[in-house]
């Protein structure tokens, strides 16, 4: 089945879309697909992707927040092609030395928040968080990990146990060693506070949770600096210092889950934890860290890492040379090409555009996020804040039909997620805003 003609400027239509879709539904797990007619994406370059029929789309979800340096960045391609042409070994495991893994580790530690001087690499964000949970439990001798309602940390056993969404949990999923604290969701404050009356009740609730739902000591707490699957919920800056102080006072390790917020997406630093000065003991990463490569990482303090001695810890594919080289190249490119600065500027341009749209479209209840990790929450009524679930799906479809790809999230699926590659230009932002404006008018009208 030939899907793409490399000699042509557009993909070939010589493939059986209906047969391929039927085969996936028959043979693959029954997993969700975006859109009523799922896209068959076959080609990508920088900010754009193409489907099998040659249609071009502005990718404003970045492969589900995985593409940071742009699709098929030429420097990443050059490094990988050079390795393949030189017959460099593709797989070594962590039991052998690898120059690429050593160089990646040094680079990652150089971008770490203060005090985090050790790194390890895995294959996904789920694995990174699993390693962080294990490390916190070994270091403290305790079991309980505190999570937040509306949080999401992965699809493996321990991470699903820490998930704050019923939609991501299965009936037989064991939930052990997990306790949930209240979410710092300013738009839908669980304490019915407003910005002018807020006394960080959500942060103080972490201490109440420890005092009432544990035996008074914890292994740690995991928090996303911006809650991704939860709908890009953005805690106030002061939240983090209050919570880290509570976690440390009760003997726990603070884990900052930067699977979505890292890689220069949300601040001028490569990691948002460093930008915000969060007193974390571990930082987990994935997605944009490798610009689409299957890689995750954990930064931690030596005092945590050293407690793992005396046991065997191994990962078959972690830090394989090609993946490590792509990950280091991504970090270098994001840093050298000042993509974080562009992310902040273009993010502000998007937010400004959506805030102007709010005067025309009452379906927009809130816009929030940091840098190029932005959420637009849709509601049927701004007073009742009824979730506009069907409308969000329709807006996504209308935008897709007009050549712009977006995501959605939130507990009810009513938050449009905007997370383009960090290379997006002002002209492309304006195209995104124009398409959003038209789509909202069509759906709400």
Produce the secondary structure layout.
Elements (H helix, E strand, L loop, with lengths): L16 H11 L13 E5 L2 E4 L4 E4 L2 H4 L8 H12 L13 H12 L7 E5 L2 H16 L4 E4 L8 H5 L16 E4 L19 H13 L6 E4 L13 H13 L3 E5 L14 H5 L5 E4 L10 E5 L1 H4 L15 H16 L2 H19 L6 E7 L2 E6 L10 H13 L2 E2 L1 E3 L5 E4 L7 H19 L1
Helix pairs in contact: 3-11, 4-11, 7-8, 12-14, 13-14
Describe this structure in words.
The protein is α/β, with parallel strands linked by helices and 445 residues long. It has two domains: 17-65 and 338-444, Alpha-Beta Complex (Aspartate Aminotransferase, domain 1); 78-336, 3-Layer(aba) Sandwich (Aspartate Aminotransferase, domain 2). It has 14 helices and 15 strands. The protein has a seven-stranded mixed β-sheet, sandwiched between helices. Strand 7, helix 8 (237-249) and strand 8 form a beta-alpha-beta unit. Helix 7 packs parallel to helix 8. The two termini are 42 Å apart.
């Amino acid at each position: 089945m030939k899907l793409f003609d490399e000699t042509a400027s557009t993909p070939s239509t010589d493939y059986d879309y209906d047969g391929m879709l039927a085969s996936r539904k028959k043979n693959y797990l029954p997993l969700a697909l975006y859109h009523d007619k799922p896209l068959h994406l076959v080609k990508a370059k920088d900010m754009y992707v193409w489907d099998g029929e040659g249609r071009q789309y502005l990718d404003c979800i970045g492969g589900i927040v995985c593409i940071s340096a742009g699709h098929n960045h030429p420097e990443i391609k050059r490094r990988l092609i050079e390795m393949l042409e030189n017959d460099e070994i593709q797989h070594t495991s962590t039991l052998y030395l690898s120059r690429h893994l050593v160089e990646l580790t040094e680079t990652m530690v150089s971008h770490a928040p203060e005090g985090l001087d050790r790194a390890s690499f895995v294959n996904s964000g789920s694995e990174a968080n699993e390693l962080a949970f294990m490390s916190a439990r070994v270091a403290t001798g305790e079991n309980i990990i505190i999570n937040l309602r509306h949080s999401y940390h992965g699809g493996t056993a321990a991470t699903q146990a820490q998930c704050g969404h019923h939609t991501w949990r299965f009936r037989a999923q064991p939930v052990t060693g997990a306790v949930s604290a209240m979410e710092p969701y300013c738009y839908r404050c669980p304490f019915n506070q407003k910005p002018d009356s807020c006394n960080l009740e959500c942060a103080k609730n972490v201490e109440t949770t420890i005092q009432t739902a544990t035996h008074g000591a914890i292994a740690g707490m995991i928090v996303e600096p911006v809650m991704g699957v939860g709908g890009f919920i953005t805690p106030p800056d002061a939240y983090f210092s209050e919570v880290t102080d509570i976690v440390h006072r009760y003997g726990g390790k603070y884990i900052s889950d930067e699977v979505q917020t890292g890689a220069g997406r949300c601040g001028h630093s490569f990691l948002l934890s460093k930008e915000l000065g969060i007193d974390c003991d571990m930082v987990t990463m994935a997605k944009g860290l490798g610009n689409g490569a299957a890689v995750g990482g954990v930064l931690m303090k030596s005092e945590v890492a050293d407690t793992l001695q005396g046991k065997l810890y191994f990962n078959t594919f972690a830090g394989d040379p090609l993946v490590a080289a792509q990950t280091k190249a991504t970090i270098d490119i994001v840093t050298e090409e000042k993509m974080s600065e562009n992310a902040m500027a273009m993010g502000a341009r998007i937010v400004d555009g959506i805030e102007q749209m709010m005067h025309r479209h009452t379906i927009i209840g809130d816009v929030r996020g940091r840098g190029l990790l932005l959420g637009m929450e849709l509601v049927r009524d701004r007073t009742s804040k009824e979730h506009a679930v069907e409308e969000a799906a329709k807006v996504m479809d209308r935008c897709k039909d007009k050549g712009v790809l977006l995501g959605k999230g939130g507990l009810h699926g009513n938050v449009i997620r905007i997370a383009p590659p960090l290379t997006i230009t002002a002209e492309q932002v304006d195209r995104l805003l124009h398409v959003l404006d038209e789509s909202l008018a069509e759906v709400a009208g």
